[in-house]
Amino acid sequence: MNQGQTVFAQLIRHLSHNEFRRCVDRYQGNRGVRAFSCWDQFLAMAFAQLTFRESLRDLEDSLGALPTKLYHMGFHHRVKRSTLADANERRDWRIFADFAHSLIHLARSLYSDSALEIDFGEDLSAALDALDATVIDLSLCLFPWAQFRVAKAAVKLHTLLEVRTNIPVFLDITAGSGHEINILDMLILQPGAYLVMDRGYIDTLIASCRSCGPHLRMMVTKHIMRGGAKHERPIDYNGL
User: Fold this and answer.
1) Domain endpoint, select from 44, 74, 98
2) Which of 13, 29, 52, 125 could, after both became Cys, cross-link 38 (CB 3.0–4.6 A)?
3) Residue 33: phi, psi to the nearest 5?
4) 3-state per-residue secondary structure call for 110-150
Protein backbone atom coordinates (compact mmCIF):
# COMPACT_ATOMS: atom_id res chain seq x y z
CA MET A 1 0.00 0.00 0.00
CA ASN A 2 1.24 3.48 -0.85
CA GLN A 3 2.31 5.30 2.31
CA GLY A 4 3.45 8.48 0.56
CA GLN A 5 1.59 11.62 -0.46
CA THR A 6 -1.71 11.48 -2.28
CA VAL A 7 -1.67 12.46 -5.96
CA PHE A 8 -3.76 15.53 -5.13
CA ALA A 9 -1.25 16.66 -2.50
CA GLN A 10 1.60 16.22 -4.98
CA LEU A 11 -0.19 18.48 -7.47
CA ILE A 12 -1.06 21.16 -4.91
CA ARG A 13 2.51 21.17 -3.61
CA HIS A 14 3.61 23.09 -6.72
CA LEU A 15 1.26 26.02 -6.01
CA SER A 16 2.61 29.09 -4.22
CA HIS A 17 0.89 29.72 -0.88
CA ASN A 18 2.47 33.16 -0.70
CA GLU A 19 1.04 34.20 -4.07
CA PHE A 20 -2.39 32.89 -3.12
CA ARG A 21 -2.23 34.75 0.20
CA ARG A 22 -1.43 37.98 -1.63
CA CYS A 23 -4.48 37.48 -3.83
CA VAL A 24 -6.65 36.86 -0.77
CA ASP A 25 -5.30 39.89 1.10
CA ARG A 26 -5.85 42.09 -1.96
CA TYR A 27 -9.62 41.55 -1.68
CA GLN A 28 -9.81 40.75 2.07
CA GLY A 29 -11.12 37.29 1.30
CA ASN A 30 -10.52 35.83 4.78
CA ARG A 31 -11.97 38.79 6.66
CA GLY A 32 -14.28 37.48 9.38
CA VAL A 33 -13.61 33.85 8.43
CA ARG A 34 -13.26 31.45 11.36
CA ALA A 35 -12.73 28.04 9.82
CA PHE A 36 -13.33 27.56 6.07
CA SER A 37 -10.63 29.74 4.50
CA CYS A 38 -10.24 30.76 0.87
CA TRP A 39 -7.47 28.17 0.56
CA ASP A 40 -9.83 25.40 1.72
CA GLN A 41 -12.39 26.67 -0.78
CA PHE A 42 -9.82 26.61 -3.58
CA LEU A 43 -8.71 23.07 -2.69
CA ALA A 44 -12.31 21.84 -2.64
CA MET A 45 -13.13 23.31 -6.05
CA ALA A 46 -9.81 22.10 -7.51
CA PHE A 47 -10.53 18.58 -6.27
CA ALA A 48 -14.03 18.74 -7.76
CA GLN A 49 -12.64 19.82 -11.13
CA LEU A 50 -9.84 17.25 -11.26
CA THR A 51 -12.05 14.33 -10.22
CA PHE A 52 -15.10 15.25 -12.33
CA ARG A 53 -17.50 15.74 -9.40
CA GLU A 54 -21.00 16.49 -10.66
CA SER A 55 -22.41 18.41 -7.68
CA LEU A 56 -21.50 19.80 -4.26
CA ARG A 57 -23.17 16.77 -2.69
CA ASP A 58 -21.00 14.49 -4.80
CA LEU A 59 -17.93 16.47 -3.71
CA GLU A 60 -18.92 16.33 -0.04
CA ASP A 61 -19.44 12.56 -0.17
CA SER A 62 -16.12 11.99 -1.95
CA LEU A 63 -14.07 14.04 0.50
CA GLY A 64 -15.99 12.65 3.47
CA ALA A 65 -15.31 9.03 2.50
CA LEU A 66 -11.76 9.19 3.94
CA PRO A 67 -11.78 11.97 6.56
CA THR A 68 -8.39 10.93 7.95
CA LYS A 69 -6.77 11.77 4.59
CA LEU A 70 -8.08 15.33 4.37
CA TYR A 71 -5.26 16.88 6.38
CA HIS A 72 -2.65 15.17 4.21
CA MET A 73 -4.40 16.58 1.14
CA GLY A 74 -4.07 20.11 2.50
CA PHE A 75 -7.53 20.61 4.03
CA HIS A 76 -7.75 22.03 7.53
CA HIS A 77 -11.45 21.27 8.01
CA ARG A 78 -14.08 18.92 6.64
CA VAL A 79 -15.95 20.26 3.64
CA LYS A 80 -19.70 20.78 4.00
CA ARG A 81 -21.68 21.53 0.88
CA SER A 82 -23.68 24.32 2.57
CA THR A 83 -20.49 26.04 3.73
CA LEU A 84 -18.88 25.67 0.30
CA ALA A 85 -22.02 26.95 -1.43
CA ASP A 86 -22.06 30.05 0.78
CA ALA A 87 -18.36 30.66 0.12
CA ASN A 88 -18.81 30.32 -3.65
CA GLU A 89 -21.69 32.80 -3.59
CA ARG A 90 -20.25 35.46 -1.29
CA ARG A 91 -16.47 35.53 -1.73
CA ASP A 92 -14.82 37.72 -4.33
CA TRP A 93 -14.19 35.77 -7.54
CA ARG A 94 -11.26 38.05 -8.37
CA ILE A 95 -9.18 36.22 -5.75
CA PHE A 96 -9.15 33.08 -7.85
CA ALA A 97 -8.96 34.95 -11.15
CA ASP A 98 -5.79 36.74 -10.04
CA PHE A 99 -4.28 33.49 -8.80
CA ALA A 100 -5.12 31.81 -12.11
CA HIS A 101 -3.36 34.61 -14.01
CA SER A 102 -0.26 34.13 -11.85
CA LEU A 103 -0.27 30.41 -12.65
CA ILE A 104 -0.69 31.15 -16.36
CA HIS A 105 2.29 33.51 -16.24
CA LEU A 106 4.38 30.84 -14.49
CA ALA A 107 3.35 28.10 -16.93
CA ARG A 108 4.14 30.27 -19.96
CA SER A 109 7.64 30.96 -18.64
CA LEU A 110 8.26 27.24 -18.13
CA TYR A 111 7.18 26.37 -21.69
CA SER A 112 8.52 29.44 -23.47
CA ASP A 113 11.07 27.36 -25.40
CA SER A 114 8.55 24.77 -26.61
CA ALA A 115 8.52 24.04 -30.32
CA LEU A 116 5.33 24.19 -32.35
CA GLU A 117 3.83 20.76 -32.99
CA ILE A 118 2.18 22.06 -36.18
CA ASP A 119 4.06 21.77 -39.46
CA PHE A 120 3.69 25.02 -41.44
CA GLY A 121 6.35 24.07 -43.95
CA GLU A 122 8.69 26.71 -42.57
CA ASP A 123 10.21 27.81 -39.30
CA LEU A 124 7.68 29.92 -37.42
CA SER A 125 9.51 31.88 -34.74
CA ALA A 126 6.78 34.47 -34.11
CA ALA A 127 4.03 33.95 -31.55
CA LEU A 128 0.92 32.12 -32.75
CA ASP A 129 -2.39 32.72 -30.94
CA ALA A 130 -5.85 31.28 -31.57
CA LEU A 131 -9.03 33.16 -30.65
CA ASP A 132 -12.46 31.59 -30.30
CA ALA A 133 -15.57 31.50 -28.14
CA THR A 134 -17.85 28.70 -27.01
CA VAL A 135 -21.32 28.65 -25.45
CA ILE A 136 -21.67 26.75 -22.15
CA ASP A 137 -25.23 25.51 -21.57
CA LEU A 138 -26.67 25.95 -18.08
CA SER A 139 -29.86 24.97 -16.32
CA LEU A 140 -32.36 27.82 -16.44
CA CYS A 141 -33.82 26.68 -13.10
CA LEU A 142 -30.46 26.94 -11.35
CA PHE A 143 -29.12 29.94 -13.29
CA PRO A 144 -32.10 32.23 -14.06
CA TRP A 145 -29.73 35.22 -14.33
CA ALA A 146 -28.07 33.63 -17.39
CA GLN A 147 -31.17 33.35 -19.60
CA PHE A 148 -30.09 32.77 -23.20
CA ARG A 149 -33.28 31.61 -24.91
CA VAL A 150 -36.89 31.29 -23.79
CA ALA A 151 -36.21 27.98 -22.03
CA LYS A 152 -32.43 27.90 -21.95
CA ALA A 153 -29.60 29.48 -19.96
CA ALA A 154 -26.00 29.85 -21.08
CA VAL A 155 -22.80 31.84 -20.76
CA LYS A 156 -20.08 32.37 -23.36
CA LEU A 157 -16.41 31.60 -22.73
CA HIS A 158 -13.88 33.61 -24.77
CA THR A 159 -10.37 32.18 -25.01
CA LEU A 160 -7.12 33.38 -26.54
CA LEU A 161 -4.83 30.34 -26.71
CA GLU A 162 -1.08 30.46 -27.17
CA VAL A 163 -0.64 27.61 -29.66
CA ARG A 164 3.05 27.07 -28.94
CA THR A 165 2.41 26.18 -25.30
CA ASN A 166 -1.30 25.22 -25.40
CA ILE A 167 -1.81 27.66 -22.53
CA PRO A 168 -4.67 30.20 -22.49
CA VAL A 169 -3.37 33.76 -22.17
CA PHE A 170 -6.80 35.38 -21.98
CA LEU A 171 -10.09 34.09 -20.58
CA ASP A 172 -13.37 35.90 -20.09
CA ILE A 173 -16.96 34.84 -19.46
CA THR A 174 -19.82 36.96 -20.78
CA ALA A 175 -23.56 36.61 -21.31
CA GLY A 176 -24.48 33.87 -23.76
CA SER A 177 -26.24 36.33 -26.04
CA GLY A 178 -23.22 38.62 -26.36
CA HIS A 179 -21.38 38.71 -29.69
CA GLU A 180 -17.79 37.49 -29.92
CA ILE A 181 -16.56 40.72 -31.47
CA ASN A 182 -17.26 42.64 -28.25
CA ILE A 183 -14.28 40.95 -26.63
CA LEU A 184 -11.73 42.34 -29.10
CA ASP A 185 -11.29 45.63 -27.26
CA MET A 186 -10.11 43.72 -24.18
CA LEU A 187 -7.32 41.84 -25.96
CA ILE A 188 -3.65 42.80 -25.69
CA LEU A 189 -1.99 41.28 -28.74
CA GLN A 190 1.70 40.44 -28.88
CA PRO A 191 3.76 42.47 -31.40
CA GLY A 192 4.54 40.39 -34.48
CA ALA A 193 2.14 37.63 -33.50
CA TYR A 194 0.01 35.55 -35.85
CA LEU A 195 -3.66 35.46 -34.84
CA VAL A 196 -5.89 32.59 -35.96
CA MET A 197 -9.66 33.10 -35.76
CA ASP A 198 -12.86 32.35 -37.63
CA ARG A 199 -14.20 34.76 -40.21
CA GLY A 200 -16.72 36.34 -37.86
CA TYR A 201 -13.94 38.31 -36.20
CA ILE A 202 -12.06 39.54 -39.26
CA ASP A 203 -13.86 42.73 -40.33
CA THR A 204 -14.29 44.03 -36.80
CA LEU A 205 -10.71 43.20 -35.88
CA ILE A 206 -9.36 45.19 -38.82
CA ALA A 207 -11.53 48.17 -37.88
CA SER A 208 -10.93 48.12 -34.13
CA CYS A 209 -7.25 47.13 -33.89
CA ARG A 210 -5.75 50.02 -35.84
CA SER A 211 -3.27 50.56 -33.02
CA CYS A 212 -1.72 47.19 -33.84
CA GLY A 213 -0.47 48.57 -37.16
CA PRO A 214 2.21 46.43 -38.80
CA HIS A 215 2.52 44.25 -35.72
CA LEU A 216 -0.64 42.30 -36.51
CA ARG A 217 -0.51 39.50 -39.09
CA MET A 218 -3.63 37.76 -40.34
CA MET A 219 -4.16 34.88 -42.72
CA VAL A 220 -7.66 34.62 -44.20
CA THR A 221 -8.87 31.68 -46.25
CA LYS A 222 -11.43 32.15 -49.03
CA HIS A 223 -12.67 28.58 -48.93
CA ILE A 224 -14.21 26.31 -46.33
CA MET A 225 -11.45 24.54 -44.44
CA ARG A 226 -11.82 20.85 -43.70
CA GLY A 227 -9.86 19.23 -40.93
CA GLY A 228 -9.67 16.17 -38.76
CA ALA A 229 -8.08 14.92 -35.57
CA LYS A 230 -4.38 14.14 -35.93
CA HIS A 231 -3.99 12.59 -32.49
CA GLU A 232 -6.49 11.25 -29.97
CA ARG A 233 -5.98 10.62 -26.28
CA PRO A 234 -8.31 8.61 -24.04
CA ILE A 235 -9.94 10.43 -21.13
CA ASP A 236 -10.15 8.73 -17.74
CA TYR A 237 -13.39 9.91 -16.13
CA ASN A 238 -12.69 7.97 -12.92
CA GLY A 239 -10.54 10.79 -11.55
CA LEU A 240 -6.96 10.69 -10.31
Assistant:
1) 98
2) 29
3) -85, 130
4) HCCCCCCCCCCCCCCCCCEEEEEEEEEEECCCCCHHHEEEC
Q: Are 94 and 115 found together in one domain?
A: no
Q: Do 178 and 154 sit in the same domain of this protein? A: yes
pTM value?
0.74
Residue ranges of the chain with pLDDT lower than 50?
A: 211, 214, 240
What residues make up the domain containing 80? 7-98
Per DSSP, what are the bridge partners of residue 92? none
Between the two ends of the chain, the Cα-to-Cα distance in Å is 16
Helix (H) or strand (E) holding 159: strand 152-162
In a domain, 104, yes or no: no
Q: What is the pLDDT of residues 83-103, one digit of tens each?
A: 999 999 999 999 999 999 999
What rounded mean pLDDT belongs to the chain? 82
Asked, for residue 209, whether it belongs to a domain, the answer is yes
Query: Hey, how many other C-beta atoms are within 10 angstroms of the C-beta on 183?
Result: 19
- Give bridge partners of residue 212 from the DSSP assignment: none
Residue type, 139: S
Q: How many domains does the chain have?
A: 2
Q: Is residue 118 domain-resident?
A: yes
